[in-house]
Specification:
Layout lengths: L3 H9 L2 E6 L5 E7 L1 H4 L5 H15 L58 H17 L3 E4 L9 H11 L4 E5 L4 H7 L5 E5 L5 H6 L2 E5 H11 L1
Parallel strand pairs: 1-3, 3-6, 4-5, 4-6
Antiparallel strand pairs: 1-2
Helix pairs in contact: 3-4, 5-6
Length: 219
């Protein structure tokens, strides 16, 4: 976390970026919070948060049949003594073909806890990394986008041949309909902002209300 001296330096430094409309023409500018968009990204923090996210997404449905799950008789296959062989019991043992598996995977959750401060810092650094790479586009509003692919495609084509993450305060029905068949474009509300989705996309498109919501959430 940044110290007092770093915070004071951030407050003095103004971070401004252009605000554009859906035609990508500048309409105004906005000052960004340096504590959120001006941090020096750390690979270890970003990696920890991404691994934590992906671990939660693992289904964990892998399993094998243990000795008690295998079909077969429990009758002792040979007598205890006098056969000259091993003292086998059930045919369902792991040493037999079709027998149970010892210490195999079981259904479980792969999720684990990660400190809230680390998750919050990771999200700040992901936004900072995007800003430093000049991969953040701030638009005044997406309200004029119609629920048609062509309406949104006019904007995405101007952005370039990259994957895009659109983020607004809430999911708009028009944006959802327009982006449903548009390849490489995802839509998220600010409440669902996460490190993995931000980093895996080429461009992050934020509305002005989304910027304010993220700053309120992370400050």
């Amino acid at each position: 976390m940044p110290g007092k001296a770093e915070k004071q330096a951030m407050e003095k430094r103004k971070m401004e970026t252009d605000v554009v409309n859906t035609q990508l023409k500048k309409v105004s500018s906005i000052e960004l919070n340096a504590e959120i968009f001006g941090l020096e990204p750390r690979q270890d923090i970003l990696s920890r948060v991404v691994q934590w996210q992906l671990a939660k997404r693992q289904a964990g449905t892998h399993s094998v049949k243990e000795r008690g799950d295998v079909r077969g008789s429990t009758k002792k296959i040979v007598r205890q003594k006098g056969s000259g062989g091993a003292r086998h019991g059930s045919k369902r043992g792991a040493q037999f073909r079709g027998g149970g598996i010892i210490f195999g995977p079981v259904v479980r959750s792969h999720a684990y806890d990660l400190p809230k401060k680390v998750r919050k810092l990771g999200l700040k650094m992901a936004l900072s990394a995007k800003f430093m790479a000049q991969e953040i586009i701030v638009v005044d509003s997406l309200a004029d986008i119609e629920p048609k692919l062509k309406s949104l495609q006019l904007m995405t084509n101007q952005i370039g041949n990259v994957t895009i993450l659109l983020m607004d305060v809430a999911k708009s029905e028009n944006i959802l309909h327009a982006s449903s068949n548009l390849r490489g474009v995802d839509v998220l509300p600010t409440a669902g902002a996460n490190v993995y989705d931000i980093l895996r996309k080429g461009k992050l498109v934020l509305t002005v209300p989304a910027v304010k919501a993220l700053e309120e959430r992370l400050i």
